[in-house]
């Protein structure tokens, strides 16, 4: 299944939404504009072509027509066809990927109170999908009703509803995509390393516990998190140490032991490498922040 990857921020911005019944003999006109056009088919069939790909969009189908691509109706409706449509804009170019490339375990940089800009992230939307529209209809109905009022104070609620609808689309995409074998094995070693954070690990021990070749597990983990087993373990240990620094009065050497690192000097180096600060400086800055 194909997915559209949109870089965020910024979030997509709402333009318009509507509901209509297309009668037999009606057909969509040809156009190309810098707007995303999302079609939700509640009843009947709509026949659309985008560039060189034709779609027969039936009840329960959702199709996202992309900004900058020419689309048109290649066949007239043959029955009453009920649709919701939604238009939004997004300034960053879209990337089309296979859903197998979506790695939900990939660790991204967390925002802190020292950051001055949000980290670059992504959202994923289905290009064309069959689903149960009942979970979308209440939000679409609310958007249509709010848009018809066209009040000054309606802009923020409409964009909030758009964000909610896009979240529903992303959830539907993920739920409909069967997990790959590599993602399942990545989850296994992720869980194992988290559960055994305080212990030292050997490749033979992990192979015996999980019943899989260690090198293969390492490749799965790297594919889905961007980290080797050692890097992932170090990352999780520093994350736990950050929490202990903020929410306990324990000394730094004691916290190092609490996250499974006996060598205090190594802990300092590792913490500084991952956060840019020593543990003491991290605690001081966080506790003095107002």
Please tell me about this protein's structure.
- By secondary structure, this protein is of the alpha+beta class.
- It folds into 2 domains: 2-176, Jelly Rolls; 181-288, Arc Repressor Mutant, subunit A.
- It is built from 9 helices and 11 strands.
- The protein has helices at 137-149, 155-176, 181-195, 203-210, 214-225, 229-247, 252-258, 264-275, 279-288, and strands at 2-8, 13-22, 36-43, 45-50, 53-58, 61-65, 71-73, 81-89, 95-98, 121-126, 128-130.
- The strands form 3 sheets. A 5-stranded antiparallel beta sheet has the order 2-8-3-6-11, with helices on one face.
- A hairpin with a 2-residue loop joins strand 4 (45-50) and strand 5.
- Helix 3 packs across helix 5 and helix 6 crosses helix 9.
- The chain is elongated and about 75 Å long.
- The two termini are 47 Å apart.
Search tags:
3-stranded antiparallel β-sheet, alpha+beta, Jelly Rolls, sequence-specific DNA binding, Arc Repressor Mutant, subunit A, 290 residues, AraC family transcriptional regulator
